[in-house]
Amino acid sequence: MKYRFKMEKGEEIKFIGHLDLLVAFQRVLKRADIPIDYSKGFNPHQLVSFASPLGLGLTSKAEYGDFQLKEDLDAEEVRERMNKNMPDGLYISKLVKLKEGVKNTMTSLERADYEIYFPDYITPDDIKENLDAFLNQKEIVVMKKTKKSTKEADIREDIFSAEDISHDGKAVMKIYVSSGSTRNLKCDTFAEAFCKFINKPFEKYKFNYCRTQMYMKNENGDYVSLISGVEL
Amino acid sequence: MYKKIPDEILLQVEKPARYVGREVNMVKKDLSEIDIRFAFCFPDVYEVGMSHLGLEILYFFLNRRNDTYCERVFAPWVDMEEKMRENNIPLFALETGDSIKKFDFVGFTLQYEMSYTNVLNMLDLAGISLFRKDRKEDDPIIICGGSCAYNPEPLADFVDVFYLGEGEVLYDDMLELYKKFKKEGRTKQEYLEALLDFDGLYMPQFYDAEYNEDGTIKSFTPNHPKARKVIKKVIVNDMDKVFFPEKQLVPFIEVVHDRVTLELFRGCIRGCRFCQAGFVYRPVREKRACTLLENTKKLMESTGHEEISLTSLSTSDFTGFEELACGLIDEYKEKQVNISLPSLRIDNFSLDLMQKVQEVRKSSLTFAAEAGTQRLRDVINKNLTEENILNGCKLAFDGGWEKVKLYFMLGLPTETEEDLKGIAHLSEKIVEKYFEIPKEKRPRPVAVNASASCFVPKPFTPFQWDAQDTYETFGEKALIVKNEIKRKQVRFTYHNTMMSSMEGVLARGDRKLSAMLYRAWELGCRFDGWTDLFDFNKWKQAFDDTGLSIAFYANRERSYDEILPWDHISVGVNKSFLINEREKALRSETTPNCRQKCSGCGAASFGGGICHEVQI
Question: What is the model's pLDDT at position B268?
Fold first, then answer.
């Protein structure tokens, strides 16, 4: 039986990178004594996959992934047993059995939302006064790093929208951007482009981000969360 | 509340998970209910320290007490150290993030000599004065244990208490006493004096050393009426009943050994004459296989690990080995759990078992031959013949292995050129053994990796009086071996010769070395066990600046009547036994192992273990 989960990743565990998180997740399944299925072959591994790696230092309200069990267990029971064995900062908020023929989260993913928490040298006013103008640009050219080189890329098309959600005197922005294997915009690339636009330095270690949602397209072409409409 | 290191810093260092704690099974306590705060410091980087079973045991042992909170501290890697110094962040404990400067105890485990500068560096990062004489009443008590504590003298000026022996024995009494003294408002000095009542604890301040003109020790005498002339280590007699944690910490990042670790027994029956562990951990005390199987079950459930490792000095000497191994295989074979069997000796190598284990996942084969000829193996009492080794390899090759690792040592006492060339010859004979099996049964090319360490004479071994080779000689010897290897299937590597030389100095050093260590630290030495960071020139300068000589400590043969810096410490093995063993070594005579015949080393005085088992 295949399952899809939605998981939160909090402050306590945000410095654990993607591969280490996968191992930690597998150990949760072991401790919870959940009959996870293994791949066949010389080096069997647990059948667990995540939608998209989350960068080191980021938190998330909505990480998604799939796993396969040897048995057909009640989803709520699996969720409870897993949560009891979770390290601090990880929490499965939703778990469903998957319908036949649903593509895995990694290939389904098309869009993601993030919140950007700006450092103190960027004020709520900086955002209020500049966000519309930033979004109204025809093109937004940034330097994108690939493995081999750094080249110019236009990210305007990857930005669906962005909102000013500053509060308590802190500059905060919510962004809606493309995500996945075909088009992908990293939230820090967005933040850097915005800083450049308002002529402020981009001190990258002072920024915080939280991924708040991930979407796929349903049969009507609408963006829905990775866990909606997939339940058996 | 947990005080975090600023994100901005963690984002700029390699592997920030080293500094945030919060691992599964980490102990959390309410500080308002705690009387004693204990910092367990491992003087190396997180991944190394978190692979140390002693840390796991003591961590859960101390934390089982409601009045004590034991927290972990590791040496920050150089990038983090730089950030900490830049931002005035003192050394902190992982559990709470609190600075350890105000803890009651700061304990270090001394596992290898090359970590000594890290001990000093960690004290400095914590804001604690390095030298004992400079510390005040409200500074923590600095306590050191571990295998290197058996020769504590090089660290004598820095440390308050050396704990000689196994942690389970004294800590409860020591902490009770501490609590009582703290409540009564008595001083740290009064507490340290009260500790003189305990055997197994050595407080260097209560002893004075005088030296002869040649630098050797003239006298070493207690300066306090209660101070013992000889301090004897303390051990657990019944290993089957002693506390063993049902949990182990589960690190988030890959550490050196990512697995459940089972301790089968303490001590070793073998008595290899170069091996300090083989003498200082005597006598052999075993756990029962059924106890170990129970321990395993709980540990697997609480960690979710996928590998179990059996650790002890010579795993296959465990009397319950078959019962344990079969029990583990029965229980875990279906559960994708790998069983790793280090320290298997090839003379009772079980092909059947290895094949059973291999079905789960492939592991590698390692043989510790130690020396290249039978004569030299007899000198070191490594009761292992060339025939044993070759037969073991033949069995392994038939069973489908094709990679063999061999461990050797350069510079063993009485070594000749023939012994060195023997390393090459033995390695090549193993390759030839592989070609004896039919061609269709060897799909992959054979690979023999021979690696050599440089022999370091250690205290409490029969070779404690011997001169160590200089690093130049080690280099020349390595070349002799290298040039003798003709087959391309044999790869030969050897350990950093200069590092081995420094290890030789510190292993048998006296208290004069405290000044040298301080100078080395001042010059920037740290992480000296890491080849990339070890800087021999700084060490040489530290010696020059303090007027001491490397050769005096490392390359000088001692006479039997010289007062050795560790003579006031007893591990239970008599000096007369060690002298006899050395004489036998020089005659290439071997000594039977403890299970074959008791050789009367002195360890029977502890009243437990193999010395008192009924001989069958």
Answer: 95
Cβ distance B109 to B55 under 8 Å?
yes
The residues pairing with A92 across neighbouring beta strands, listed in sequence order, are A7
Q: With an 8 Å Cβ cutoff, is B277 touching chain A?
A: no
Report chain A residues whose CB lies below 8 A from the CB of B17. Answer: 15-17, 20
- Across the interface, of A20, A31, A57, the residue whose CB is closest to B304 is A31
Q: What is the pLDDT of residues B512-521, one digit of tens each?
A: 999 999 999 9
* ipTM of the complex, rounded to two decimals: 0.93
Please tell me the predicted confidence (pLDDT) of residue B256.
86
Q: What is the pLDDT of residues B223-241, one digit of tens each?
A: 999 999 999 999 999 999 9
CB contact under 8 A, B20 and A31: no
What CATH number does the domain located at A2-107 have? 3.30.70.580
- Residue B556 to residue B465: CA distance in whole angstroms: 8
Residues of chain B with pLDDT under 50: 1, 347-349, 359-361
Give me the amino acid identity at A118.
F
Chain region(s) in chain B for CATH 3.30.750.210: 237-363+584-616
- CB-nearest to B11 from A30, A44, A205 is A205
**Would you identify the CATH topology of the domain B237-363+584-616?**
Transcription Regulator spoIIAA (3.30.750)
Rounded-to-integer distance, Cα B57 and Cα B27, Å: 13
Nearest CA-CA partner of B455 in B502, B419, B412, B492: B412
Determine contact: B27 vs chain A, CB below 8 A. Answer: no
Cα–Cα distance measured from residue B208 to residue B352, given in angstroms and rounded to the nearest whole number = 57
- The pLDDT assigned to B214 comes to 96
Query: Quick check: B11 and A56 CB within 8 A?
Result: yes
> Which pLDDT score is estimated for A208?
97
Contacts of residue A133, defined as CB under 8 A and 6 or more positions apart, other chains included, come to: A197
pLDDT at B37: 98
Choose the closest CB to A87 out of B7, B22, B361. B22
Inspect the interface and report whether the beta carbons of B252 and A20 lie closer than 8 Å: yes
B-chain CB neighbours of A202 within 8 Å are none
Q: How far is A228 from chain B (nearest CA, A)?
A: 31
